[in-house]
Amino acid sequence: MSDKSAEEATDLRAAGWRAMRAALPGVFPEGDIDLRDGRLGEDLVDIGLTSVWGALWGREGLAPRDRSLVTLGILIALGAETELKTHVRIGLTNGLTQDEIAEVIYHSSGYTGFPRAVAARTAAREALEG
Predict the structure, then answer these.
(1) DSSP character for 61?
(2) pTM value?
């Protein structure tokens, strides 16, 4: 890896930590911690930290609240209920109300189908109750 590539990776990692800590306050201790657990696919978390949190959530083009709305819709469409639970909590941190999260679910039913919306509602309820 060239010096420039290493520097860019470090910048994305730092941006990823800033964005992730802002979205999930109190979840991660300060500093650059190692999220690897020594098990299969352990690098996936680090990939997400730099590519999703650093390169996407760290961008200035949308406010975190808007990114949460978009992300919720995408996760509902994908049927990704595990990630949806986390992003319901992130959406609340980013200023969404429970009523707005419900509206995203209602709206998605017209585009993703009723079963996906019901699964999303179940996941959101679990996230809000847990």
Answers:
(1) S
(2) 0.89
Tell me the CA distances in angstroms from 6 to 3, 52, 56, one per residue in order. Answer: 5, 18, 19
pLDDT of the chain, 130 residues: tens digit per residue? 677 777 777 899 999 999 999 999 999 999 888 888 999 999 999 999 999 999 999 999 999 999 999 999 999 999 999 999 999 999 999 999 999 999 999 999 999 999 999 999 999 999 999 7
Measured from the Cβ of residue 122, the count of other Cβ atoms closer than 10 Å reads: 14
CA distances from 83 to 5, 61, 89, 108, 117 (A): 30, 23, 10, 16, 15
| Residue that has been written with the tokens 């995408």 in this structure | 74
Contact between 13 and 35 (Cβ < 8 Å) = no
Domains assigned to the chain: 1-25+45-61 (no CATH), 63-130 (1.20.1290.10)
